[in-house]
Fold this sequence. Notes:
37% of the residues lie in helices and 15% in strands. The protein is an alpha/beta fold. It is found in: Nucleus.
Amino acid sequence: MDLVTGAMGNLVPKLLQLLGDEYNLQKSVRTQVRSLADELRSMHVALGKVSQAPHDRLDPQLKLWASEVREASYDMEDVIDTFFVRVDGGRQSVHADKGKVERLLEKMGNLFSLSKLKARRDIAGAIEDIKKQVDEIAKRRDRYKLDDLVANSTTVTSIDPRVLSLHTKVPDLVGINEPRDELITMLTMGDDHASNKKMKIVSIVGFGGLGKTNLAKVVYEKLTMDMNNCKAFVPVGQKPDLKKVLRDILLSLDKEDYMTKTNFIMSLDERQLISEIQDFLKEKRYFIVIDDIWEEPSWNVIRIALEDNNMGSKVIITTRYHNVAELANCTYQIKPLLPNTSKVLFYGRIFGSQDKCPESFSEISDKILKKCGGVPLAIITIASLLANKSDDITEWQEVCNSIGSGLSSSEDMYNNMTKILLLSYYDLSPHMKTCFIYLSIYPEDHKIRRDELIWKWICEGFIHAQKKDDDLFELGISYFNDLINRSLVQPVGSMGSVDGIDSCRVHDVIRDIICSLSKEENFITTSEDIEQVMSSKGRKLRRLYLNNTTWPKKDVSQVRSFSIFRPSIDSVPSFSCFDVLRVLDLQGCTLTDCQASMLCVGNLVHLRYLGLNGTGLKHVPRGIEKLHFLVVLKMSGSFVELPVSIFELKRLMCLEGVCCYPRPSNLLRNFASLKELWKLCIDNESRGALEELSKLTQLTKLGIQIKLQMDQRLSDAFINCLGNLPRLRSLWVEHDWCLKNNLIKWERWAPPPHLCSLSIIGDYSLRAVPEWWISPASLPRLTQLILSVVRPDQDIGAYADGYDWRKYGQKDVLSNRYPRGYFRCARRHDGGCQVTKTMQREDNDASVVCIRYLGKHNHDATPARESA
């Protein structure tokens, strides 16, 4: 499925599936299906060519025809999917030991049941109606001639390390040193005078794409290097939820404390949040960055919370508007990059360095850079586009000619910036365009989780296997990395993820563009645009994103995707009106008071994705066992126990945030398609599930909570099963603290090479760090390790784990009577090793020390003890 062709790519395979013997269609209907499939193939090819052309160059009649086909394709797919649901419901019996005769009788019963015969008659009539509709569209198509555009081929890619250097090595950003030093001088001027301790507020002003956020981030990191708390970097955005902004400030100032008070913080209104911030900041020196403020009223509210306590505090605000910037004590006007600096950035992205650029490309490069006007976002975006065309000067000429007059004039600056950024969009393949435009469903400045995004792409039908054995999730990672490589999204790092990247953000300038494209193609509808879409002839609500409490009063029967991201509602409507819903994401909705009867999803038979993270639900939604096409269930933060009936859902690939008790144990094998299971709970009734784990060979993420005493046989079986999970990237194992005799021999385990994150908590068999941790070569991707190590009497500072450490801090932590020690690798300064660790005795058992490592050593182990 893609932006222009809609569901057309899915239709032909589904039509051909109807020809299977198990659906027993009449001969005349089968003939119509074949004819229809042929015509749809032809339309799909034509639409593929349309999708390759810049949208602003298409003939208006051609746009209208493409829109008509796209809308029709959605309706056709809904009809066919409904037939599949009615005939077999996607059911796969969980009784694996049924005899052949019994299974044959069951199949014959399904084939001749009255309800299924009616479904076959209905599909015959529907196919005839679809055929008439397609014939009418085909006749109109003959009136237009499509240029023979060549579709771009796609490749499976990893993240280009040159792109990561643009985002992750913030202090080394091109051209950042001079403005950084100027801004630091403005912030610190007069600090030497003891009498001058007033709070200083400095604004950074400039249009979108100049690098205001990066500059603020560099200064923030440099001036807060030795601050453990009382610092915050908080985005605001164009349409801010000020309560969320104030909550984010509190969480950033002291996350460990306020994360334990989530319910308390969520209950506060704006005035109470301001008061809470003021109380926290009393008699404290703080450094706060408020990023991307658009309007004076927003800043005025935030400013009230930041009282001047004469402690020498610093505040930076970034904005694109001078009237907002002038509210600060002083203003820094960010400037475009100088020509030489622009070249360093441009050539570094394409060739690795300026001296590697062929001389024949110098002249055309100068022309392109002149049109980019020294704007970093434009330079990076156009360079990322040209990086894949670095050996063809003709293509460079075409790109240069496509840009237009450039960014020299402020009057048409936004239009020219848009034109530059759209070049990278048009260079995407059709399916990549769809995945990219889908990002418009997320709010401004939202941190988009990679794995969540990929699961939605899969459930929406945007990712298709190119070969028989293709893994859809791996393809999704490739798509995500491709968007990063093209600089269309900004990578956000995390120590415990593959390649250190687990999220992304969309620059607000780019988001404006994709929101405009999405609106024009009726791809995603926001609450503000519902009336406009419904009043347009031939348009229906397909994907709905709400950001307020107003539920649509119009027909939502054709809505395929429904998402809410802001914590602005406390109830949900009846879902009986959503006939063809595939994706339902209610994350952020406060549903703590909802009972199971209030959230019934049993009629959502098409549902693939159910996102209930952070809703606080106390029960799994009623009727979930009927969702036989469900692929993803997310309920993080709810700690809900799954009913046994959930094991009927054999298509599940992701279970997150729920307690899964396989009782009886052999039910676990029904989840053979699972890639993520978080978390599996093992007690005496489900003890056999530890051995059943070996059946889940597709697992990449696994969380286990062990609630039973394990004998040596079961412990060995557990280690053997883990050895049969070669795809694991993240493993979390927690033992109940009362279980002190579970002697798991972790040294016998050979961790898979893809492992990125490992947590072993409450295991009293751990007396030392396993040998495979000491050798960097054995686990090349492991960047997060959390261990509970038994150290009853020794000083934790004397604990040897194969590396030399330097202690740089200690802090008392809420809900633990023992302080937490902070350590850095001793080779941080002379060898550039960035690994850190924390050590703290467990409050409920002082003989156990929790050690948390972040990062990957860039050198071999050098056995030594820590020094304070």
